[in-house]
Amino acid sequence: MSDILLRNDEDGIATLTLNAPSRLNALSDAMLAALQAQIDALSEDRDTRVVILKGAGKVFCAGHDLKEMQAGRQAEDGGRAYFADLFARCAKVMTGITRLPQPVIAAPHGIATAAGCQLVASCDLAIAAEGTRFGVNGVNIGLFCSTPMVALTRNVPRKHAFEMLTTGQFIETGRAEALGLINRAVPHDMLESETAALAKTLAEKLNTAVRIGKRTFYEQIAMDIDAAYAHAGAVMVENMMMRDTDEGISAFIEKRKPDWQA
């Protein structure tokens, strides 16, 4: 794999590290391609149970590579085709994270701005280093963060999201936690250990149940309440039919450790 994105695997946990610190881990064409390649690989990976996403250097991710975007303007059409393709590729990465069977934990530090904030919002969980700043700041340079808005508004109440989008101001970890953008903040020197502890907790659960649960979580959110209950009920029936679920319930009743095979 390209050095722009590092991967480390240990005990069923894959850690992906954005590794372009001199460019503030920008979502360049190369970074998006590397992320997409890993998403494609992880989607077929039965051994990986949890994914952690973090950034090397001083910040998590500063969003799209503006110099690269400006270079795209040199095309005959002024960059229209390039920009359309860029935002489509970025959306595919973001939705790919949501559609991965494994839970994905973001571990931001420093700043997570524009598409970097979108990346945090697209992950299933987020533990941030205290003092991390989050923003959708494109409006400050005349570019409204319309695509980051999609993930943001699925995490943060609409009036707060609109304020962030229209003022271009940063919020820090205390407010980000209160608004639901992150699960919690921890001291910077504890970010790695706290993220690893959460990943380990998830990795110890029945893998098939967690995969079913993540898929159904996002499916039912898009439905009205009656359809959501009908869909979730059908999923629970299928879950109950699994050998390992039977074993898990029996082990709980018998006060012993389950002998899961998956």
Quick structural summary:
This protein is 49% helix and 14% strand. It has helices spanning 29-43, 66-72, 80-99, 115-122, 146-152, 158-167, 173-179, 191-203, 207-221, 225-240, 243-253, and strands at residues 5-10, 13-18, 50-55, 104-106, 111-113, 125-129, 133-135, 171-172, 184-186.
How would you explain this protein's 3D organization?
- This protein is of the alpha/beta class and 262 residues long.
- The protein contains eleven helices and nine strands.
- The chain has a six-stranded mixed sheet with strand order 1-2-3-4-6-9, with helices on both faces. Strands 5-7-8 form a three-stranded mixed sheet.
The biggest sheet, with number of strands, parallel, antiparallel or mixed sense and barrel status, is:
6 strands, mixed
Can you tell me the CATH class of the largest domain?
A: Alpha Beta
Number of helices: 11
CATH architecture of the largest domain: Alpha-Beta Complex
Overall mean pLDDT stands at: 96
Helix content: 40-55%
Can you write the helix and strand succession as a string? EEHEHHEEHEEHHEHEHHHH
Strand content: 5-15%
How many structurally independent domains? 2
How many individual β-strands? Answer: 9
Given as residue ranges, the uncertain stretches (5+ residues, pLDDT < 50) are: none
Oligomer type: single chain
CATH topology of the largest domain: 2-enoyl-CoA Hydratase, Chain A, domain 1
Using the CA coordinates, give the radius of gyration.
Answer: 20 Å
The CATH fourth-level homologous superfamily of the largest domain = 2-enoyl-CoA Hydratase, Chain A, domain 1
- Spatial sequence of strands, sheet with the most strands: 1-2-3-4-6-9
